[in-house]
Design brief:
This protein is α/β, with parallel strands linked by helices. It folds into two domains: 13-246, Aspartate Aminotransferase, domain 2 (3-Layer(aba) Sandwich), CATH 3.40.640; 251-342, Aspartate Aminotransferase, domain 1, CATH 3.90.1150. It is built from 14 helices and 13 strands. It has helices at residues 14-21, 34-47, 58-69, 83-86, 91-96, 112-115, 148-160, 172-179, 183-187, 213-225, 234-246, 251-266, 294-303, 326-342, and strands at residues 2-3, 51-55, 74-79, 99-103, 128-135, 164-169, 192-196, 207-211, 271-273, 282-287, 306-307, 309-310, 315-319. It has a seven-stranded mixed sheet, with helices on both faces. A four-stranded antiparallel sheet has the order 9-10-13-12. Strands 1-11 form a two-stranded parallel ribbon. It starts with a strand and ends in a 15-residue tail after the last helix. It binds pyridoxal-5'-phosphate. Residues 57-59, 62, 83, 135, 139, 168, 170, 196, 198-199 line the site of pyridoxal-5'-phosphate (PLP).
């Protein structure tokens, strides 16, 4: 099966498993897991921040970030495609008492123009606008990569307006590799940064939240409250250390494969794909209405050993990752071509995709 549904489907390689097997471990809740401690120090140093806290998932580290930056009654601003606003089960409301205000933005990337009139005035009627959340790379907005300058401008504006900045860096290193800026340059724009190891970096699980020592102390308490404080978690932290050493530079291959896939898809009659707009490892394309919907194409592709993610209506996402080769890309593109040529409207139509009715 060529599985392009997500970059989370990767399985740990033998070398990563060996690193996990060999990990030195201790009780992390007592601060005694040497491998977790090493990972946290390593990431904090890479990003030029004081401290980091290992978390179970990107959702957990994002929600720790929201709780650290806000108090109940506060409001956060985010693009309307942002993961924190739509894919985290209403976490800000439930876990932090925080209202989410979703704003439109070109390519899903907020700039000062989108934000400038949004902070509420100080008045008893309003919640306090407190946090701006950016996502880099963007996920469902299109896999786009923020220019450094745009993040710096928003950060400067946020500081002037007494707002905090959180980065959902689920694909932080995809952005670093695609844009060529450093981890520390990007991190300097944010108070808190969440990074996933379970996406392109190929780990079975794990994320990290990064920020000041004081904020991370609070984040640790929030993590405990969320049930995310673990014991011998060096077993999984070892995979993350392995990934930081071995799986960052190779993300370029995933980006090249994504561009190749978009190029092959764009050549198919009935498919609208845009290689020029493919900036990282996520490929989005539209199926012209006639052959059927994205859900139907996904079903037809599955029968041919290829999986992709319907995104609602005619829109499809394909994510490249370290278990996908260039040959897999060519095979997958051929499978799409065959499906489109043969038609797939006979496939069962169940909903429009996983994200909406
Ligand atoms: C995957 C992802 C997350 C975190 O998801 P988990 O499944 O909790 O690891 C957060 N933000 C974005 C943009 C993502 O793509």
């Amino acid at each position: 099966m060529i599985d392009l549904r997500s970059d989370t489907v990767t399985k740990p390689t033998p070398a990563m498993k060996q690193a996990m097997f060999d990990a030195d471990v201790g009780d992390d809740m007592m601060g005694e897991d040497p491998t977790v401690n090493r990972l946290e120090t390593m990431v904090a140093e890479m990003l030029g921040k004081e401290a980091a806290v290992f978390a179970c998932s990107g959702t957990q580290s994002n929600q720790m970030g929201v709780r650290v930056n806000c108090v109940p009654g506060d409001e956060l601003l985010i693009n309307d495609t942002g993961h924190i606003g739509i894919f985290e089960a209403g976490g800000p409301a439930v876990l932090s008492g925080v209202t989410v205000r979703q704003l439109g933005a070109p390519k899903g990337m907020l700039s000062i123009d989108d934000l400038i009139w949004q902070p509420r005035v100080s008045d008893q009627h309003f919640c306090r606008t407190r946090l701006v959340c950016l996502e880099n790379t963007t996920n469902i907005a299109g896999g786009f990569v923020y220019p450094l300058e745009q993040m710096q401008q928003v950060a400067g504006w946020a500081a002037d307006n007494d707002l905090r900045m959180h980065l959902d860096g689920a694909r932080f290193f995809n952005a670093v590799v695609a844009a060529g800026y450093s981890a520390a340059e990007m991190a300097a724009c944010f108070d808190t940064i969440s990074i996933c190891f379970s996406k392109g970096l190929g780990c079975p699980m794990g994320s990290v939240l990064v920020g000041t020592a004081k904020d991370m102390q609070l984040a640790r308490r929030v993590r405990k409250m969320l049930g995310g404080a673990l014991r011998q978690s060096g077993i999984v932290a070892a995979a993350a250390i392995y990934a930081l050493k071995n799986n960052v530079d190779r993300l370029q291959q995933d980006h090249d494969n994504a561009t190749l896939l978009a190029t092959k898809l764009a050549a198919i009659d009935g498919i609208d794909a845009c290689p020029d707009a493919t900036e990282s490892n996520l490929v989005f394309f539209e199926i012209n209405a006639e052959p059927g919907t994205a859900v139907q194409l996904a079903a037809a592709l599955k029968e041919r050993g290829v999986r992709m993610g319907p995104m609602g209506g005619q829109r499809m996402r394909a994510a490249t990752h370290l278990d996908i080769s260039e040959q897999d890309i060519l095979t997958a593109a051929d499978a799409v071509r065959t499906c489109v040529e043969k038609g797939f409207a006979d496939q069962e139509l169940v909903g429009s995709g996983p994200y909406s009715k």
